Automatic annotation (TrEMBL):
Gene3D superfamilies: 2.60.40.1960, Acid Proteases. It comes from the Eukaryota. Pfam families: Asp. Belongs to the peptidase A1 family. This is Lysosomal aspartic protease. Residues 1-282 form the Peptidase A1 domain. GO terms for molecular function: aspartic-type endopeptidase activity. The keyword Aminoacyl-tRNA synthetase does not apply. Keywords: Aspartyl protease, Disulfide bond, Hydrolase, Protease. GO terms for biological process: proteolysis. The lineage of its organism: Eukaryota, Metazoa, Ecdysozoa, Arthropoda, Hexapoda. Disulfide bonds join C163-C167, C206-C242. SUPFAM superfamilies: Acid proteases (SSF50630).
């Protein structure tokens, strides 16, 4: 890992309470990290964010789960609303805005679906870049601030409808999957004729990818289509094995039913707008 060394920084400040370091236990997905708070200048995209408080991690549970990634991760950068920030710490993007480093409370993501390309994707702070999308954005209002929570009107596939009376979804750049309720995912498995060879591991014949039906996510009155090549991927270590990106979501929050992760964002360039509390989608190039 690339590691932060406060002893080498002239702008480092300790964060203490009654003379003691402040330790935090943070949960993220299946990981629990333990660390203590520090403050320093953080450089993101050549922007120097002054007096940014962050956690220096000293222990990670289930660290072996990072093995699923082809490169090591050195840290996590949260981009949700500040009202769910652990310990009331001001998030990086909020400080970027407060310090006038960008003019707009908007950030956006382009994720390249071509795994052989040099550019894996781009995070744009302060707006969007039409180089990476085509057409206009369709904007969906945020229904509850915290996570980027919006409404799906319906999910359609051939003759079947899921989420028939609308449901709540979180758009999450930190998820590599599209997840939903157990019953809905079971219906998808049946309709797509996927082979559930072990828990949440859905295999499909790679030759069937282009024969699989289109799945339509209806949001804001517009259909956002995913085809077989969007929701079936080749195993990174076994090119002959194809798996689905649909998994069951065991929600601790009964209101949130689905999570739209990277497979959806890869297909649709995504803009997160804190000024107007909305999420915009446009077809990615």
């Amino acid at each position: 890992h690339n590691q932060y060394d406060s002893a080498r920084s002239e702008t480092y400040n300790t964060v203490t309470y009654n003379g003691q370091f402040i330790f935090l236990n943070l949960s993220y997905s299946s990981l629990i990290v333990r660390g203590f708070l520090s403050t320093d200048t953080v450089n993101v995209a050549n922007l120097n964010v002054k007096n940014q408080t962050f956690a220096e991690v000293v222990d990670i549970s289930n660290e072996h789960l990072f093995d699923r990634y082809e490169q090591e991760l050195d840290g996590l950068l949260g981009l949700s609303y500040s009202n769910i920030s652990v310990g009331g710490i001001t998030p990086v993007f909020d400080n970027i805005i407060e310090q006038g480093l960008v003019s707009s409370r908007i950030f956006s993501f382009y994720l390249n679906r071509d795994t052989s390309a040099d550019l894996g994707g781009t995070l744009i702070l302060g707006g969007s870049d039409p180089t990476y999308y085509e057409g206009d954005f369709t904007y969906i209002p945020v229904t509850r601030k915290g996570y980027w929570q919006i409404t799906i009107d319906r999910i359609k596939m051939t003759s079947e409808d899921l989420c028939e009376e609308s449901c709540q979804v979180v758009v999450d750049t930190g998820s590599s999957l599209i997840t939903g309720p157990e019953l809905d995912i079971a219906r998808l498995i049946h309709l797509l004729e996927l082979m559930n060879i072990k828990q949440n591991y859905l295999k499909v014949d790679c030759n069937r990818i282009f024969q699989l039906p289109t799945i339509r996510f209806i949001m804001g009155g517009k259909a956002f289509d995913l085809t077989g090549k969007d929701y079936i991927i080749r195993h990174p270590n076994h090119e002959s094995i194809c798996t689905s990106i649909f998994f069951t979501y065991d929600s601790y929050n009964s209101e949130i039913k689905w999570i739209l992760g990277m497979p959806f964002i890869g297909r649709y360039y995504t803009e997160f707008d804190m000024e107007r509390d909305r999420v915009g989608f446009a077809l990615a190039k």
